[in-house]
């Protein structure tokens, strides 16, 4: 692994990684023969940079937040020949970087990347869209729609959950049908989350036992929401015991087909891309990632 392209979003996390740009390059050059840095100017640049450089580099590093990671993964995942991928966390939640054990200080993460420890990880796929952390409909989309920029920057990942708690009571139940190769469930629901990684919005709340290398999706279906139920889910990261809670169904599957009435907006890793119906699957060990302490 010798040639590296760093895709840096200068505005992620209020310019968090931008401040360390020169030191990141110095750190990586100690370990890799060639390191080129590409700064994004606007949404979509991450995709076009990958299209330009993917065939000529061994490793693509995103220095930025979850939005930039998501864009770049969507450009790398469909390729036949995929370069390895790494993350220097620079946003608010930095979900997948936590999943793969990256330290949250940009320079410390660059030092971890210089060690070149790698692991093949699963990637989720919803129709033609790829995700690393989660796919969700219902309450989760109301949450990310209502997290305003101010509170996101001030209190970061906690904003996600505080807003969730505030949203409870205003949820809109919908008719949901989920089908796997072996089972079908149909009924009224307020949220369906399908996880690959275990982090959502910066904390390990919903899928404490998930794995990014088991070739399976973790499904969490909430039939009804009450403050109590939701609090228990957030607590589940301590107890690991959500399976038997009333109003909640959890299971693992490699593939799930989802239909909702009325149709629901889909949130993939914090980005709203499509509406239901949707088929969600897992691509086992699809991307080679440079990891930290896993
Ligand atoms: N130079 C730029 N100026 C303005 N916006 C940019 C620029 N480069 C990229 N963008 C856009 O900035 C958006 C936010 O990026 P990103 O998610 O990395 O940071 P963040 O919002 O601070 O992090 P998080 O998603 O973890 O909260 C992305 O949608 C991206 O397309």
From TrEMBL:
Gene3D superfamilies associated with the record: 2.60.200.40, Probable inorganic polyphosphate/atp-NAD kinase, domain 1
Q: What is this protein called?
A: Bis(5'-nucleosyl)-tetraphosphatase
Please provide the record's keywords in A-Z order: ATP-binding, Kinase, Lipid biosynthesis, Lipid metabolism, Nucleotide-binding, Phospholipid biosynthesis, Phospholipid metabolism, Transferase
Any single GO molecular-function term of the entry would be:
ATP-dependent diacylglycerol kinase activity
The UniProt entry, under PANTHER family, shows: LIPID KINASE BMRU-RELATED (PTHR12358:SF107), SPHINGOSINE KINASE (PTHR12358)
Q: Name one GO cellular component term.
A: plasma membrane
Biological processes, Gene Ontology terms = phospholipid biosynthetic process
Stated family: Belongs to the diacylglycerol/lipid kinase family.
Q: Which InterPro entries match?
A: ATP-NAD_kinase_N, Diacylglycerol/lipid_kinase, Diacylglycerol_kinase_cat_dom, Lipid_Phosphate_FormReg, NAD/diacylglycerol_kinase_sf, YegS/DAGK_C
Which prosthetic group or cofactor does it need? Mg(2+)
Name the Pfam families on file. Answer: DAGK_cat, YegS_C
Q: Which NCBIfam families match?
A: YegS/Rv2252/BmrU family lipid kinase
Q: The DAGKc domain covers which part of the protein?
A: 1-130
Top-level taxon: Bacteria
């Amino acid at each position: 692994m010798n040639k590296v392209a760093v895709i840096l979003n200068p505005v992620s996390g209020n310019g968090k990684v931008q401040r360390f740009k020169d030191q990141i390059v110095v750190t990586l050059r100690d370990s890799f023969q060639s390191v080129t840095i590409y700064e994004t100017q606007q949404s979509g640049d991450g995709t076009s940079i990958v299209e330009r450089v993917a065939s000529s580099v061994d490793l693509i590093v995103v220095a930025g937040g979850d939005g930039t990671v998501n864009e770049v993964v969507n450009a790398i995942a469909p390729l036949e020949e995929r370069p390895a991928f790494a993350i220097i966390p620079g946003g608010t939640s930095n979900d997948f970087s936590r999943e793969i054990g990256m330290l949250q200080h940009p320079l410390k993460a660059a030092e971890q990347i210089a060690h070149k420890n790698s692991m093949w990880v699963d990637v989720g796929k919803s129709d033609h869209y790829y995700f690393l952390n989660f796919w969700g409909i219902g309450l989760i989309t109301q949450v990310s729609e209502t997290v305003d920029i101010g509170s996101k920057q001030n209190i970061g990942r906690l904003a996600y959950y505080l807003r969730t708690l505030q949203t409870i009571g205003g949820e809109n139940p919908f008719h949901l049908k989920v089908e796997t190769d072996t089972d079908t469930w149909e009924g009224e629901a307020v949220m369906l989350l399908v996880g690959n990684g275990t982090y959502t919005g910066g904390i390990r709340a919903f899928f404490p036992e998930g794995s990014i290398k088991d070739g399976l999706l973790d499904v969490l279906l909430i039939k009804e929401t009450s403050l109590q139920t939701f609090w228990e889910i957030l607590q589940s990261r301590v107890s690991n015991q959500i399976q038997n809670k009333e109003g909640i169904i959890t299971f693992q599957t490699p593939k799930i087909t989802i239909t909702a009435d009325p149709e629901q907006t889909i949130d993939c890793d914090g980005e709203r891309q499509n509406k239901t119906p949707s088929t969600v699957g897992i691509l086992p060990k699809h991307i080679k990632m440079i990891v930290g302490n896993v």
